[in-house]
Amino acid sequence: MDLSKLLRKPPAEDYQQVDTFWFPEEREDYEYSDENEDDTSLLIGQHIILEAGQVSLNYYCTECEDLRTFNSDKEQGLRGIIVNKQVISIDCILQCNCGSVVHTWYLVEAEEDIRYQSPKVRILHFREKLTERVKLQSEKYGEFSEWLEKANRAHRDGLGSGAIIYLRKVYESITYSIANANNIPLYRGNGSRRSFSDILKEVDEQHSIIPVSFSANRYKLFSQLSEIIHGDGSEEDALEYFGALYTLVTSVLDNVTQKEELKSAAQKFNWSTNNVSTN
Length: 279
Ligand SMILES: [Zn+2]
Hints:
Blueprint: H1 3-6, E1 16-17, H2 40-43, E2 47-50, E3 56-61, E4 66-71, E5 78-82, E6 87-95, E7 101-110, E8 120-129, E9 134-135, H3 143-156, H4 160-181, H5 196-207, H6 218-229, H7 235-257, H8 263-267
Antiparallel strand pairs: 1-8, 2-5, 3-4, 3-9, 5-6, 6-7, 7-8
Bound molecules: zinc ion.
Zinc ion binds next to loops.
């Protein structure tokens, strides 16, 4: 497997064997052993060219208005800097056909030594610099897209609770928005605010915003989000459940776009309703 194939995957704990990717030019017959370990200090900070294939990652391109594959330059190859005998830093500019770029950075760690033949390596760290032209998230959810984008970015940066807060914001906002548009009160007769779960229950009973497949668990979803946000769940839980919670929240949004009667609530958020069925 080319190193570039590994660089298309998310960081992982386990090491994977990749094809030899570094061939030091002036040291063709160089063989590393414990006896010449002192050489290591000479390598730190050295720029190297890696024979590792082409890195490709998918992003939403706002120029193309679609999900696109962004590729590194095939001719130029990948460039790295030696951090130590086990770790290299790789900077990589990925480009869409339209010219939009995203800057990515990896720290790749070898289990033993990056100079070994077909070393076992893993991605220790991955960062990407997204821009107005390059996003993780399509913009089809209007104003919610920005919050979902932030949730995704926080999750990619390993910020579990932060990611969940944005998901909860979307879940609460769509619920309040539909309540407002349909005269479902947010306050009790005495002026105090109704609990979110009461409002959600009424909204869902009248308009079925929660997809049927998990409608029975609508409060469980919210309380699970709340538990994680309010610190009852661990940071690890937040990261682990993010994918599932994200799917649940976006399926609520998808469900609402399907419903003609809720169009006005969706429009409040400049939400695309072009594909709403009018049947
Ligand atoms: Zn593009």
